[in-house]
Amino acid sequence: MPRKGAQxxxxxxxxxxxxRVNFGAVVKRVHLNKEYIIIEKDGIPIAGLMDIDEFEDYxxxxxxxxRTTIEESxxxxxxxxxxPASELLSELAIEKPKKxxxxx
Length: 104
What we know:
By secondary structure, this protein is an alpha+beta fold. The protein has 2 domains: 8-50, YefM-like fold (3-Layer(aba) Sandwich); 51-81. It contains 5 helices and 3 strands; from the N terminus they run E-H-H-E-E-H-H-H. A hairpin with a 2-residue loop joins strand 2 and strand 3 (44-49). The longest helix has 15 residues, at 64-78. The protein is elongated. This is Antitoxin.
């Protein structure tokens, strides 16, 4: 899922000790501010934290079938084979069925 706005994602480097001591606050920053945290041990990057939505998107894109579908859809869109969402929604609109009175 693309990030909202045109800002670059914020990447912060923290020591593993600082993360351990402030774990709840660090996770909150990652989730609410969509920050990336690089966790370091002795100044060497060992792990990273990202919001779960982005992580799930990352995992989906590792699936070849999903990646192929995304590439095909992107090619169709660039070729002009798209239409406004309002047009699709009007096609999908279904009249609410009228309530039928039960027979006595």
